[in-house]
Amino acid sequence: MPLEYEKKGHVAYFTIRNGSVNPMTPSIHKQMYHTMLDFLADEDIRVGIMTGAGERAFSAGDDIKTPYAKFETPAEEMAAHLWPKHRVEEEDPQTFAWSRDVLALERYKPIIAAVRGYCLGQGMIYLLHLTDIRVASDDAKFGFPEIAYGMGGAGGSSRLSRHLPHTVAMEMLLTGDPMSAADALKHNLVNRVVDGDAVMAEAEAIAARIARHPPLAVRIEMEAYYRSIDQTKLDALAATKHLYRMQRLVHGGGSEKVGRFLYKNDAAD
């Protein structure tokens, strides 16, 4: 399958495997949605690693050669856009609408990116939305080349201003030029830049450090962090206090089953 999903211990691996530069297709987006649901629901999985197969690319973005669904009238096309019929399980999707469902998921379980080579377009959007810690090879490149083909909008769908300073984001979006791994590190788009052969080992080392902690504490930390981004100071303080107190109450008086799952540091088991 073009998206491989594998579990090893407490870690789940998402590997985009679709040719030399791992372009995204409607089927990959659909698989990403369903594997992400499994990842979030599996209580034994504490952290994920997302990567692209091979050395050339994490993903070069959506495959522009993929044929789109054809419509008889503009009204039919608009209806398909607003109410996409992409949940028919027995059929292959003909549009990229599934990517919207992936991006809309509420995710409070960490994912580490292991990036080699190109990370462009939709691959870059997934990197920004679906990963929390990022390890890149020294030859990695990040960007949105779509503007050269008359396809703007990456600034909104990626929420790039949350990840880069305004002027840096504008240069990336408006020139279409890729950002080097060194500049990505300088602007805190990635956490580490290492030799290509060391990318996965570094990502796994970080995953192990996260997986050793109680899952509930990780969940609470991530939810408090992400929710506070769009909250006022007082709302963030109140929400965090409630989440923290709920965690402490369960820790002190929860059932034996809940206690074992949420608090046992058994990542090495």
Automatic annotation (TrEMBL):
Pfam families: ECH_1
InterPro entries cross-referenced by the UniProt entry: ClpP/crotonase-like_dom_sf, Enoyl-CoA_hydra/iso
Gene Ontology MF annotations: catalytic activity
CDD domains: crotonase-like (cd06558)
Example GO biological process: fatty acid beta-oxidation
Taxonomy, superkingdom: Bacteria
UniProt name for this protein: E-phenylitaconyl-CoA hydratase/crotonobetainyl-CoA hydratase/dehydration protein DpgD
Organism: Stella humosa
